[in-house]
Write a structure and sequence with these properties.
The structure is a single chain. By secondary structure, the chain is α+β, with helices and mostly antiparallel strands. The chain has a single domain, classed as 3-methyladenine DNA Glycosylase, Chain A (Roll). Helix content is 13%, strand content 29%. The chain contains 3 helices and 8 strands; from the N terminus they run H-E-E-E-E-E-H-H-E-E-E. Strands 1, 2, 3, 4, 5, 6, 7 and 8 form an 8-stranded antiparallel β-sheet that branches. The chain starts with 7 loop residues before the first helix and ends in a 14-residue tail after the last strand. The structure holds a DNA duplex.
DNA sequence: ATGTCGATTCCCT
DNA sequence: GGGAATCGACATA
């Protein structure tokens, strides 16, 4: 485990450019991470702020495992960081489809019955959207992400650091709003809408 | 036991 | 750009 895993504030930008690989029924979906948010220890915006609960248990597990939680009928996917027990994690907010885009579209359409089938950047440009596109489920909560033999078929592949990364305040929170803990790849159209890009 | 509040998304103006 | 949807987890008047 490399050093950068021990700090969500470092891991969050470092996870930009890494790839999330979902294997289901022998078929592969691959997404390149383009947007993340860090949630730190003693961070009032973090689910871990008030200590361990049933929901955030996975956040206190070992680094490079998944923390999956439900919010507003939707799932969000995090990569746990820091030494075990710190309650740190990095929220994955958007990915760029690299493989299996058709399967992602099908999964999104199935998850959003009632509305028009999602297409274009809307396929994976949000934390709930990418979970639908990759068929991430509550079963992935707590699962190791670097293990190539991971049973649930969800894996994280480390890639070289990306050069052009921008920061901004985090989205959708009411505490800790000023901290620049959101990271995204400059100019990438798959980054979620809703925030201006800082140079 | 019950009330509050979202680490969101979609649809509308 | 704003608001409704909608329900489970969490904290507690």
């Amino acid at each position: 485990m490399e050093r950068w895993w021990h700090d969500a504030g470092i891991a969050a930008p470092r996870l930009i450019g890494c790839e999330l690989v979902r294997t289901l029924r022998g078929r592969v979906r691959r997404g390149r991470i383009v947007e993340t948010e860090a949630y730190l220890p003693d961070d009032p915006a973090s689910h871990s702020f008030r200590g361990l609960t049933e929901r955030n248990r996975a956040m206190f597990g070992p680094p490079a495992t998944a923390y999956v939680y439900r919010i507003h009928q939707v799932l969000c996917f995090n990569v746990v960081t820091g030494p075990r027990g710190q309650g740190e994690a990095v929220l994955i907010r958007a990915v760029q489809p690299l493989e299996g885009e058709d399967l992602m579209a099908r999964a999104r359409a199935a998850a959003t019955q009632g509305s028009r089938p999602p297409s274009g950047f809307g396929l994976t440009n949000g934390p709930g959207k990418l979970c639908q596109a990759l068929s991430i489920t509550p079963r992935h909560d707590g699962q190791a992400l670097l293990d190539p033999d991971a049973a649930p078929g969800l894996r994280l592949e480390i890639r070289p650091a990306v050069a052009e990364i921008r920061t901004s305040p985090r989205i959708g929170i009411s505490k800790g709003v000023e901290l620049p803990l959101r990271f995204f790849e400059a100019g990438n159209p798959w980054v979620s809408p809703g925030r201006p890009s800082a140079p």
